[in-house]
Specification:
This is Iron ABC transporter permease. This protein is mainly alpha-helical and about 350 residues long. The chain has helices at about 20-40, 50-60, 65-100, 110-125, 130-155, 160-185, 185-195, 205-225, 225-235, 235-240, 245-270, 275-285, 290-315, 325-340. Among the domains are: about 105-270, Orthogonal Bundle (ABC transporter involved in vitamin B12 uptake, BtuC), CATH 1.10.3470.10; about 275-340, no CATH class. It is about 75% helix and about 0% strand. Helix 3 packs antiparallel against helix 11. It is globular, with a radius of gyration of 23 Å.
Length: about 350
């Protein structure tokens, strides 16, 4: 009997390597960023064609109305880029520090502190200008985050992820109660505050951007350099200590960058939700758990979401606008629910 000749198995297509996936994801992020910037400059109540857009940027004519529209949208686009990059970078770092996939600026009481400071400035000092809101919001956000970290640091174990989350939730609830008490008793304060509270990048000129730009750049520099620190913390406190890392000091450095970024971004654009929460999960899909890659790509992808939300808000309710903070909440919540249910995100 002749022996059966084995039939060679069909080759199984090789899975794309991590490097190829990372390269493809980076190219897509950069392409999306360019497209979002172009849409932010061209789309609105008065749309502008691509050719006119290029002319307005390369050969500006003050007498041309379309050119003037493009130039007027540049500060708004710049505010979206800076705010989005800050929120994405801070969100990724915050999830790494807290080792909590649901971490966002609210977990450190940043939004609550900024909001209460703005309410106090309106009610007590009579401040109604954006330039005043910026400094009030920044100081309030920084003070609230510092208070959370100090409370969480009490005890032998220091600022553990669970204690940070609990302290942040407790402070957010307390500050929110005080803020609501003030707003209920003052209609004028409520009217002035509600326009800042929804979160928006419209009406932010170069003056407002210039006031927070030094803080944004400093926060980005500090946070972008914490990739290896966050990789160590993601292994757990005991493992990080065994590798020679000073856990308390590492968390303090990361928290400093997060506070500066969140405070400056919240001061500039108001409390915008879901950007810092959703973006790191999307980035992990093609970078893996390495924070040296997650941080810079989160800073590049987050402005895409924020600018896209701002552009969508300009056209869904013409001739009016829907603020970017409302659009990010409407679009970000379903995406995040899908990410959680799919269980495909890499571990923290």
């Amino acid at each position: 009997m002749r022996a059966a000749v084995p039939v060679p198995a069909r080759p199984v297509p090789a899975a794309p390597s991590g490097q190829r996936r990372l390269a493809a994801g980076t190219v897509l992020v950069l392409a999306g960023l360019l497209a979002a910037c172009a849409a932010s400059l061209a789309v609105g109540a008065r749309p502008v064609g691509f050719g006119t857009l290029v002319e307005a940027l390369t050969a500006f004519d003050p007498a041309n109305g379309d050119h003037a529209v493009v130039q007027a949208r540049i500060p708004r686009t710049a505010a979206g880029l800076l705010t989005g990059a800050a929120l994405g970078l801070a969100g990724a770092a915050m999830q790494g520090v807290a080792r909590n996939p649901l971490a966002d600026p609210g977990i450190l009481g940043v939004n609550a502190g900024a909001a209460l400071a703005v309410v106090a400035g309106i009610h007590v000092l009579g401040i109604t200008q954006l330039s005043g809101y910026i400094w009030l919001a920044f100081l309030g956000a920084a003070a609230a985050a510092a208070a959370v970290y100090c409370v969480a640091s009490l005890g032998r174990e220091g600022a553990t992820p669970v204690k940070l989350a609990l302290a942040g939730a407790a402070l957010t609830a307390g500050l929110g109660s005080v803020m609501n008490a003030v707003l209920v008793g003052s209609r004028d304060t409520l009217e002035a505050f509600r326009f800042w509270q929804v979160g928006s990048i419209s009406g932010r000129g170069w003056e407002a951007i210039g006031q927070v730009l030094p803080f944004l750049l400093a926060g980005m520099l500090v946070t972008a350099c914490t990739g290896r620190i966050l990789n160590g913390l993601s292994l757990g406190d005991d493992t990080a200590r065994g590798l020679g890392q000073q856990v308390a000091l590492s968390r303090a450095v990361c928290a400093l960058g997060i506070v500066v970024l969140c405070g400056a971004a919240t001061a500039l654009a108001g409390p915008i939700a879901f950007v810092g929460l959703v973006i790191p999960h999307i980035v992990r899909a093609f970078t893996g758990p390495d924070y040296c890659r997650i941080l810079p790509l989160s800073a590049l992808l987050a402005p895409v979401l924020l600018l896209a939300a701002d552009v969508a808000g300009r056209v869904v309710a013409l001739p009016g606008e829907v603020q970017a903070g409302i659009m990010t909440a409407a679009g970000g919540a379903p995406v995040f629910i899908w990410l959680v249910r799919s269980r495909k995100a890499a571990g923290l």
